[in-house]
Design a protein that fits this description.
CATH architecture of the largest domain: Sandwich
Order of helices and strands: HEEEEEEEEEEH
Strand content: over 45%
CATH topology of the largest domain: lipopolysaccharide transport protein A fold
Distance between the termini: 115 Å
Helix content: 10-25%
CATH superfamily of the largest domain: Lipopolysaccharide (LPS) transport protein A like domain
Number of helices: 2
Number of domains: 2
Length: 206
């Protein structure tokens, strides 16, 4: 028995050591977060100079083009900050629109582009419509809906007519322009006559 006592003490010490190690590991795992999730801050994780982005429809045809001198991507809200932005709508069945601004922010998975600083949207002229120009400090473009709007003061040049307002909405699909709180309105008689003639022709078409 005396010869086996050291062996028994050794086994008991090993069992105690193993139990203590298991308890320490279990306590650590249950109280301390080993790999905490990475905190997303509003800091860029990607950037590029002289870039071009294309947005396509369900058939793969390009319908919008966004380019600029520089962009930064922010992972916390999946937004893009763009310097000297140019947003072009190039749907084949609608007039081309070109938006420019000093800066822009694209977010909402690319469905919204907020043009800021000397913002200007130009609709190129077509056979039946004169050019349309919209100027404001802020213009919001919705590429998927082909819509431009703002709540800020805006100056609009529609053919030979000009008007100012606080807030506007333009739908390129229907060519409908709404200007809110309009003032300083100067409508061209020639523009009104041309549109009246165009409407009569549309009404008489089968």
């Amino acid at each position: 028995m005396r010869d086996r006592l050291p062996s028994l003490i050794t086994v008991a010490l090993l069992i105690t050591l193993v139990a203590g190690t298991w308890w320490s590991a279990h306590y650590t795992m249950s109280t301390i977060e080993i790999d905490p999730p990475r905190k997303l801050t509003h800091e860029p994780d990607a950037w590029a100079d002289d870039f071009i982005m294309l947005r396509t429809d369900s058939d793969g045809a390009a319908i919008n083009r966004l380019e600029g001198d520089y962009f930064e991507h922010y992972p916390d809200d999946d937004s893009y900050f763009i310097v000297e932005a140019v947003a072009t709508g190039i749907r084949p069945d609608r007039p081309i629109t070109i938006g420019r601004s000093d800066e822009a922010v694209m977010d909402d998975d690319g469905a919204r582009i907020t043009m800021q600083g000397n913002a200007h949207v130009h609709r190129v002229p077509t056979q039946d419509r004169a050019a349309l120009d919209i100027y404001s400090d802020v213009l919001v473009i919705f590429p998927d809906d082909d819509v431009v709007e703002t709540d800020e003061p805006a100056h609009i040049v529609d053919g030979r007519s000009t008007l100012d307002g606080i807030g506007m909405h333009y739908a390129n699909a229907t060519r409908q322009l709404q200007v809110f709180s309009a003032s300083n309105v100067k409508l061209s008689g020639q523009d009104r006559q041309e549109r009246r003639t165009q409407k009569q022709q549309e009404d008489t078409q089968p």
